[in-house]
Design brief:
globular, EamA family transporter, transmembrane helix, AA-Vitamin_Transporters
């Protein structure tokens, strides 16, 4: 398999894993503790990766890790949970699905690059909307603002991850650990102020936290940041549509939820747009354009006419001067 498609499939594991968060949270974790759930997802995963890699930031990467940790974790998690509390799940998922459009704009402003798969970035959120949005979904101004702000924070973090890359000789796991630790620490004071002391988990909750920490955070974010470093960021953000789609499939399989015909059509539309958006960009087409320009020229313009004032060579005669 082409290495690029291997990168796409491994990156897609991250949002597919994030799609299990709703099921795990609703079935295994203690209710009403979303901020502590975010802390217990990010901070232990970050500390684990720091212990495995044993590499601290240096130079500019101290503040870069703080900025990226704030955008991808410290700001994103509280805003995500605030939106989830104030809005129906489908509405919050639709707000998150517009991330590819934000990434496309930031690609131009920050990376000074032409965004890829813009059409897919428009179609995929429409498909997600059909899958998750209900007719009776209500809108709350604070919830909508929080959902958009959280989506913008993660989109900015994704683009800056591509812009800054990582230090020479430092692995993706190391940089992921820096961000998770920094972002998790930022949420701790807010969790203490809003929710009080951390919850005392039972055995099912421990299993849920273990899944979210090891697989849904440490592994998923490492694959996500790895993909952001190797693939066009607009195409990486398109893969985020797999998160609400995975949640919808798990709700159908595990919770007995049903799909309407419109939802099935939206599912096919979103998956198709996401897959088509991963096509590799066309190779440099300048030779092809040059051939087309040549073919479009008039026949008489393709080759200059011989100059009648110049002598025409005779067979066996050389017109090149001897001194050349």
């Amino acid at each position: 398999m082409d290495r690029r498609w291997t990168d796409v499939l491994s990156t897609a594991v991250a949002p597919a894993t994030w799609g299990t968060t709703y099921l795990v949270t609703s079935e295994l974790l203690p209710p009403g503790r979303p901020l502590w759930s975010g802390v217990l997802r990010a901070l232990p995963a970050g500390l684990l990766l720091l212990a495995l890699t044993r590499h601290r930031p240096h130079g500019t990467w101290w503040w870069r890790s703080v900025v990226l940790g704030a955008l991808n974790i410290g700001a994103f998690f509280p805003l995500l949970f605030l939106a989830a509390y104030r809005l129906p799940g489908g509405t919050a998922a639709v707000l998150g699905a517009v991330q590819p459009l934000l990434v496309a704009g930031l690609t131009v402003l920050v990376l000074h690059e032409r965004p890829r798969a813009v059409a897919a970035a428009v179609v995929a959120p429409l498909g997600v909307t059909l899958v998750v949005l209900r007719p009776d979904a209500g809108l709350d101004a604070i919830g909508v603002a929080a959902g958009l702000a959280g989506t913008a924070a993660m989109a900015t973090g994704l683009v800056l991850t591509r812009r800054w890359g990582r230090p020479d000789g430092v692995s993706t796991l190391t940089v992921t650990g820096w961000q998770l630790a920094a972002g998790g620490l930022m949420v701790v004071p807010l969790a203490l102020a809003v929710e009080g002391r951390p919850p005392a988990p039972d055995v099912p909750a421990l299993a849920g936290y273990a899944w979210l920490t090891l697989v849904g955070t440490a592994l998923a974010y490492a694959l996500w940041f790895r993909g952001a470093a190797r693939l066009p960021v607009t195409q990486v953000s398109l893969l985020g549509a797999l998160s609400p789609l995975t949640a919808a499939v798990l709700g159908w399989l595990a919770l007995g939820q049903s799909f309407t015909a419109w939802q099935l059509a939206g599912f096919v539309l979103a998956v198709g747009a996401t897959a088509l958006g991963q096509r590799p960009p066309r190779a440099d087409n300048r030779p092809r354009s040059a051939v087309l320009r040549r073919l479009r020229r008039p026949v008489n313009a393709r080759r200059p006419l011989p100059d009648a004032t110049q002598p025409r060579p005779v067979a066996g005669q050389c017109l090149v001067s001897p001194d050349r």
